[in-house]
Hints:
The protein is of the alpha/beta class. The protein has a domain at 11-164 and 191-233 and 280-295: Rossmann fold. Helices cover 41% and strands 15% of the residues. It is built from ten helices and twelve strands. It has a six-stranded parallel beta sheet, sandwiched between helices. Helix 3 (79-100) packs parallel to helix 4. The radius of gyration is 19 Å and the shape is globular.
Amino acid sequence: MERSALPAGGRILLTGATGQVGGELLQTLKPLGEVIAPARAEMDLARAASVRKTIRAVRPRWIVNPGAYTAVDKAESEPESAYAINAEAVKVMGQEARAIGAGVIHFSTDYVFDGSASAPYCETDATGPVSVYGASKLAGEKALAESGAGHMIFRTSWVYGVRGKNFLLTILKLARERETLCVVADQYGAPTWSRDLAKMTAEVIGQCEAVARGSELAGVLADVGGFYHAAGAGETTWYGFAAEAVRLQREREPAVRFADIEAITSAAYPTPAKRPANSRMDCSRLMERFGWKMMDWQDSLRKVLAEL
């Protein structure tokens, strides 16, 4: 499909630029136009007034929001912080975007579902979070959807990459230090490469700009906006992900002794926050609307390992 850059003077306001997805977006969005990526001292997502002030100063054409409170277990004891960043900040983004005609791209999560379904989740399935983190992300989704701003919400899962804190980097570190690693094998989903998400986002913005042709985005987003699932293709478990990562890394470093990976149940590894047993996501709507197929998790894993 045709893709265009932003019109002259158009700006993209990017949150969370030091995070996994934000760091990748900082690179993929640059060819589209000027990217403003304020540090926390300049735009604190935990303070609604700070978010509002920054948006009014920048007056962006797009707000891209991968920034989030992502400490899933810690959120159980810090619900106020989780809701401030994951819900209140998003509400302000929607309000301010509507006032200036900006488009909003917001990233959400499989945790808005309870994980009890037997099939991959599609965008219209009933939500039902089982953790504070999931509930706070759902509240952010609803606030943006009700704001009247043109928007797209990308729900993703099991995000990882070469930067930041993520499951892959933790597993590889521990596998070098221990003889055995026990990993949960009864939670199903698909790892999602942060760079794949970032490339997809740039492609979607470019396609929207091609349709808008420099004019207002409201009409374009009224047509193609809403929810999209954007997670890695295929499926596995946390155990399957860890075992494959360690297997591939053994091939790359045959002289290193890596831990044996053993499968356990969720019940054997209790955590403060409950996790969805089924995090599989149906991403066909993304393909139908924008022609984008998310990368298979095994393919992306090989690419990420090659960069480490």
